[in-house]
Design brief:
Layout (H helix, E strand, L loop, with lengths): L4 E4 L2 E9 L5 E10 L4 E7 L7 H18 L3
Antiparallel strand pairs: 1-2, 2-3, 3-4
């Protein structure tokens, strides 16, 4: 299993990073809802930037866990 992919029921959250301003990195999560007929994707951004890609990735993984934790099946 990918270290950036987390699932709960029909929801899959994938953590990612991207370059931000001033050499910083920002994490983000793509949340996919797959109910069999169609897939719906929503992007969630981490609200802070980090000096390293690893730190930004850790923030994105934490955000993915929070998002999935708030979903009631």
């Amino acid at each position: 299993m990918d270290t950036n992919t987390f699932t709960k029921g029909i929801y899959t959250a994938k953590a990612h990073t991207q370059h931000a301003a001033n050499g910083q990195f920002q994490g983000y999560v793509i949340l996919a809802r797959d109910d069999g007929d169609e897939t719906e994707n929503v992007r969630y951004d981490v609200h802070t930037t980090s000096p390293s890609e690893e730190e930004a990735f850790d923030e994105a993984k934490a955000l993915a866990h929070r998002i999935l934790g708030e979903i009631e099946l």
